[in-house]
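pinging the channel bc i need a second pair of eyes. not urgent but kinda urgent?? the chain im working w is below, pasted from the shared doc
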Amino acid sequence: MPARPEHPELPTAVCVMDPAIAHEVLPAELRARLSARVRLAPGPARSSSPAAFPAEFAEAEILISGWGCPRLTADVLARAPRLRAVMHAAGSVKSLVSDAVWERGIVVSSAADANAGPVIAYTLALITLAVRRTLTMAARCGDGRRDCGGRTGADGSTVGIVGASRVGRGVLAGLRRSDAGHRLLLADPCVTDEEARRLGAERVELAELCRRSAVVSVHAPLLPETTGLLDAGMLGLIPDGGALVNTARGAIVDTEALTRACRSGRLEAYLDVTDPEPLPSGHPLLSLPTVLVTPHIAGAQGSEVRRLGRYAVAEVERWVRGEPLLGAVTREALPRLA
């Protein structure tokens, strides 16, 4: 962590995010808590252009960023020569952080841990629907029949988790805590057999996971090697009547291959992310009865975004006290994060 300046006054902090959500992310009580530790510039700044940043940006040691903050390029950072820390009150910082941030030695923290909670809860709900083949059952009721037939029990289903990310691990923990007795599989090349066992899962290769799972839930980051990871071949291994859940990144799944599998009635799909996003009007996935598409709402929404503000404020407090940051992001780790 870069050395703290040795001046006695409170460090200056500037908030830059979409003003439409800033009051929800940082409501009055959190801004008051911040003001006990920093000299908080009025705002938030209009985030559409760095030119609209407040004059205090030139003196800022801390930037509290969020959705809508422009990318921190060398030109932007040149306007903030004293900037030492970026506390991102949102999830991914990939679109925010440039090489210039690391070259300046600026500390970066993300509230991704706080954002993971709603994603985990949402994913667990989708998996609950998927193991019960909810969309298939609902489609059978479309003709008004009282008895839809084909009822299936959910207990003991095999659920495959693709990627031991923070969300993937949280989903595994949630499934372990349930009393449904699910068999849990994990595919992640960076996880050992022993680590998978500690997570309550059996580590297998992706192909085996697909062959054995009634539900496949995607939690890998989007990387060159994961783009199109679940292609026609992998999707074809999922047993008939199985389901795919994706709350990670749409491009990890081959959209056309998934469309074919769902159109045939072989698979269900529960998608909070798609490729492209959003899907064009009239795309088959939007109308197939065994596909649920939601508009990227698994992460913090509405009142939930206050969690992100609380996390960022706590990180500011830790930095001011000289303590390690819980959400620290490093240059080396960034490529493999969501």
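so The longest helix spans residues 112-131. and The chain is about 30% helix and 15% strand. — does that match what u expected or am i reading it wrong
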